[in-house]
User: Fold Cytochrome C from Hymenobacter sedentarius.
Amino acid sequence: MKKEGVVPGATAAATPATVAAPAAGGGDAAAIAAGDALFKGNCAQCHAVNEQVVGPALAGISKRRPITWLIPWVKNSSKVVASGDEYAVALFNKFNKQQMPSFALSDKEITSIIAYVTSEEGKASTVATAGVTAGNAAATDGQEAGGAEAGAGKYVDILLIVLVVVLIVLVVTLVIIGNLMKDVLRGRKDLDGRDVEILEQRFDWGKLYRSPMLRGIVGVVFALVLLYEGVQSVMAVGLTQGYQPTQPIAFSHKLHAGEHQINCAYCHTSVYKSKSANIPSANICMNCHSQIKTESPEIKKIYRAIERKQPIQWVRIHNLPDLAYFNHSQHTQVAGLQCQTCHGPIQNMEVVYQYSALTMGWCINCHREMPLNTKDNKYYDNLVKLHDTKNAGAPFTVSSNGGTECSKCHY
Assistant:
């Protein structure tokens, strides 16, 4: 389900299921694993365990504050500060009155995050400049693989260029040798009339031009090219694959999602729970950029938008027609698809462009090939049995469950 063998920095921090799912109970290991996913999906943009980033280092937090204080702080820190809590007010003032976002996490989820933080105390860590801890093995491996592929492609291009240059040099050399040989032969006295005629003969381009066969071949090729281009133009009406508009603010997904491995859901907060993956508000940008690169000309554009109380006029890139229904949460949360399945290697894009065709045929082909995860889901038990009986072990795909019916997307 991953494109080009690339695992996104944006989504590698936690799979869709673990980002939205409650922390698993039943043991310290399970709580720590759940806390790891929740920490990377919600906290790692501003906090590290053993180093200060945008916010304070979290090592020893369970000793500094009781869990009964930490839970309300994570859920609504501004409320705790407003209550006059001495520790909260001091912390708020120490970090330049930077407001920590409120998180709709359960008590169990917050407890699992604390368990993860406690397990990581004292371990060496590398902190990214935007406040993201490095060490996401899946994302790193994916990026290294992508880099290796890019490097291999670069060498292939260089090799092809060298071969073309060598061929051109060979052709020029042969022409020069041919001319020199003609000059030598012209200086000989023992050539008869036939030899001289061959030596002095010239290619008759006019005869070639007047050839009916050549004219017919050229005419047919020209007609086929026109026909092909015409069909391609008609078929491409309404398609915007490769569309790459200039945005009002130069936001780099390569920097944020790739190098700093910021989870997609941190900015696109509804991608796992709503029909649409919302455009992030300027307030989300300010969670980091109230303290990071504050003098950047691009960041100042965000400040101006906030001061003027005007939304940033982002240019929409991926735009399905109104006649088609698409639900992000159904694909990311339920199906567990990575963002790259549709959006391509987003973590490598300086400027985002439409990677996939997003046509009806493209969607249908995916539904025909994509297997459904029916494990431990009793809803599918009878459907899978009927499918296996009729289709002799063929995979149970989205199409097998009615995913190619017109009413699934058009109603």
Remarks:
- Residues 360-411 form one domain.
- The chain is about 55% helix and 0% strand.
